[in-house]
Specification:
Elements (H helix, E strand, L loop, with lengths): L13 E5 L4 H12 L3 E6 L11 E5 L5 H8 L4 E4 L8 H21 L4 E5 L27 H14 L5 E6 L2 E3 L6 H12 L5 E3 L3 E2 L1 E3 H13 L17 E5 L5 E2 H12 L4 E3 L11 H5 L8 H14 L1
Parallel strand pairs: 1-2, 1-4, 2-3, 4-5, 5-6, 6-11, 7-10, 8-13
Antiparallel strand pairs: 9-12
Pfam family, one: Epimerase
Protein name: NAD(P)H-binding protein
Organism: Aeromicrobium fastidiosum
Length: 310
């Protein structure tokens, strides 16, 4: 096995992070600094990157090929976290598919050996009756929602970029505090304000991961703590494009929904329609040495505390 960059190198690795001011991107920056990296934090608005002596804010649009080439020059790895979730399909395609592949090609052209992309488990077909899903499971069809479809297409675009190792990290629901956190902030606000959002499938599975556990795996790959391999079972395959699911033990959506409804002071409405009841075992990530540290109880306590405090 080899690793790139080496965590034992006397030279500190430089990692570029797009979306460094975002929910996941900010946590990735912190995890990288904890591992001894220096970070080039790519943001579009000045003054929004995490503040730390080892984090350098770089303002620009990574969808622009010239800026992308400039920001990746001399880097040891690139981590891409940006996707305009909630935007229309054209914007999601332009930024997610076109933009992410633009900076990936720039990195490959600059000789950057590794790119880690934050994808999503929403690329898998999780229709009722499908069962457990993994990295080898069928992906969504072209009639899927805009988010799943454009994330699927971004993964495909990155798979077509040669000349570097690419890792597609696929989390399910990401729990953790933050103003832009979907599951701790935005989704609860919708449940509070919209009666339709209080309806939930009673038996639906709820695969999830805490943002700090997700960031830990991303950072470990980016700095080489998880070594490259010739088998996806033990690490990212050197020179190839390797997907990896990152999930804690699967819960029920009802577990999450009850906590949210109670915290915002509304009654949940249970729907008995067919739902996906499978799991995301994340065996590949565990084979790489990763395991989640945050329990479901702790994550839901965090959701509850944040909502009641607000």
């Amino acid at each position: 096995m080899t690793s790139s960059p080496s965590p034992d190198s006397s030279r500190r690795p430089t990692v570029v992070v797009t979306g460094a001011n975002g929910f996941v991107g900010g946590q990735v920056c912190r995890a990288l600094v904890e591992r001894g990296s220096v970070v080039r934090a790519v943001v579009r608005r000045p003054g929004t990157a995490p503040t730390h002596p080892d984090v350098t804010e770089t303002v620009g649009d990574f969808t622009d090929a010239s800026f992308a080439a400039q920001v990746v020059d001399g880097a040891d790895a690139v981590v891409t976290t940006v996707h305009p979730m909630g935007s229309d399909r054209a914007a999601q395609h332009e930024i997610g598919v076109v933009g992410t592949s633009t900076i990936a090609r720039a990195a490959a052209g600059a000789g950057v050996p590794l790119l880690v992309h934050v994808s999503t488990a929403a690329v898998y077909d999780r229709s009722p009756g499908v069962g457990d899903v993994s990295e080898t499971s069928p992906l969504v069809d072209d009639d899927a929602n805009d988010y799943s479809l454009t994330k699927r297409d971004t993964d495909a675009a990155l798979a077509a970029v040669d000349g570097m190792t690419r890792v597609l990290v696929r989390p399910p629901a990401i729990l953790g505090p933050g103003e832009t956190s979907v599951w701790n902030t935005l989704r609860p606000a919708a449940v509070r304000d919209d009666e339709d959002e209080r309806r939930a499938l009673a038996g639906q599975s709820f695969p999830w991961v805490h943002v700090t556990d997700l960031a830990a795996l991303i950072a470990d790959v980016a700095v080489g703590r998880i070594a490259l391999s010739d088998s996806a079972a033990t690490g990212p395959v050197e020179g190839a494009c390797t997907p990896v699911d990152v999930a804690a033990p699967t819960a029920l959506y009802a577990d999450y929904h009850r906590v949210v409804a109670d915290a915002v002071g509304v009654e949940p409405v249970w729907d008995e329609s067919p739902a996906w009841t499978g799991r995301i075992p994340a065996d590949r990530a565990r084979g790489w040495g990763w395991s989640p540290a945050v329990t479901l109880d702790a994550a839901l306590d965090e959701v509850r505390a944040g909502l009641t405090a607000g």
